[in-house]
Amino acid sequence: MAQVSVEDEREEAGGWRFRVLVGAEDRACEVRLSWVDYELWARGQHPPARGVEALVRYLIDRDGESGVRTKFDAASLRRMHPTIDRELPTML
User: How does pLDDT run across 19-64, given as a tens digit for each residue?
Assistant: First the structure.
């Protein structure tokens, strides 16, 4: 299983921005998570950082480490993975 480490969390208007390290080489990526998506996926039961970690693992499981872009908004994943709203909560 690929290594995923949430290194930094910053609250901003409408959500959070995270710095996440991925893989053995600690490739950095920046993930934005809106409050709306957080509530949909985590339902307030898990910290936002846990949700982002699960989100990156979800991507790796489906697309491999190379599928994790350097910078992305969590909501954009619905275009590539239409079942994410149903599947991601089961990974938390």
Answer: 999 998 899 999 999 999 999 999 989 999 999 999 999 999 999 9
The answer to whether the CB of 46 falls within 8 A of the CB of 88 is: no
**Which residue pairs from 13-17 have beta carbons closer than 8 angstroms and sit at least 24 positions apart in sequence?**
16/48, 16/52
H/E stretch holding 53 reads helix 48-63
Report CA torsion sign: 73, 47, 56, 81: negative
Distance of CA 56 to the CA centre of its chain: 4
pTM of the model: 0.93
